Amino acid sequence: MKITSPFSLPPMAIILLGAIVASTGCNLTNTVRPKRAPDGAVAGVVQTAPNWWLDSKANVVEARESVVNGDTKKVQVSIYSDQLQQQRFSYRFEWFDKSGMRIGGMDSWKSLMILPKQTIVVDATAPSPQVSDWILQISDTNYPWNSSAP
Amino acid sequence: MTTSAHPSLLAALCTLIATLGCRPTQYVDSKGTNLVVSMNQVNIQDFEQASEALVTSMIDSGVLAKAPRQPAALAISRIINDTSRQFDTDQLMKKIRIALLQTGKVQVTQAVGFGGKVEDPMAKETYEAKRFLDGKSQTPVDLPDFTITAKILENATSAGSTKQISYIFQMSLADTASGRLVWEGEKTITKQGEKNAIGF
Fold this sequence. Notes:
The complex is a heterodimer of chains A (150) and B (200).
Chain A: H1 11-25, E1 30-36, E2 42-48, H2 52-57, E3 59-68, E4 72-80, E5 87-96, E6 110-114, E7 119-125, E8 133-139
Antiparallel strand pairs in A: 1-2, 1-8, 3-4, 4-7, 5-6, 5-8
Chain B: H1 7-20, E1 36-37, H2 44-61, E2 72-81, H3 90-103, E3 106-108, H4 121-133, E4 146-159, E5 162-175, E6 180-193, E7 197-198
Parallel strand pairs in B: 2-3, 2-4
Antiparallel strand pairs in B: 1-7, 4-5, 5-6
Helix pairs in contact in B: 2-3
């Protein structure tokens, strides 16, 4: 059986394969969790970023927590874009109680624009006082083939 | 000379065609980003984002935690849709009520309602019957500590073939003990384009 090296493919095949890889790669969601100190305070973030392109335009550099309404957790994260052009991304928070159970439904995805080399702050308030932890999901779902409806 | 398509090229073409081809009807995440964005009406994601923003602002203000009794009794007052399209304002208000109830700081009273109407007439009748049976008919009913009013406005403009429409969601919370507005919030959602689209 003859094994074909990808370098021997016709140029069109390489372009098409690249387009497919690029389009499926856009589907990956990056995840950010708080890194906690022994006292429970936020001491940084842990990022899982399988989508390197998304990470380059929406990288979480800092996270903060406070309490509002007496007993409800509020989260604020700073997101930096290392890109030289204006970019868009989407994000949403997921909330968990002390047992790790998800609280409420998921927040809706929110779409944001970020300028070149800009750091923006996004925040969210937990849906319930039972919330003790959170995860931030960052996504890049504005696919080019979905750009217009009939 | 015979030319035949490279198998990998064919496979790649098929995959691309399948990816870019017609869109069959499918279920999508109602809170996702792959929803239809309309230029001439409020979409579900607009209600979702407006309610989340308004509830977050109200919770962050801390005003609900300062109520003399916990959970405080809340009643829904006048809700005005001042946009060019008719829709049920419960698409906004129900989300807000659900989110507020989840905080544990408020409960929605059915003892009184705007214009004498409540959402659940049976709850009101049963409440009144129980008060009568308990000999409490002469005592004051469970009056709301807070009332909510809201208004949804529209602002449309265009430049050439590009249209822009803004939906402005305004909401106020009144403390019935003082008759004063103790919190107000506003969320504007603006959409710009030439035609409806999928995804945002």
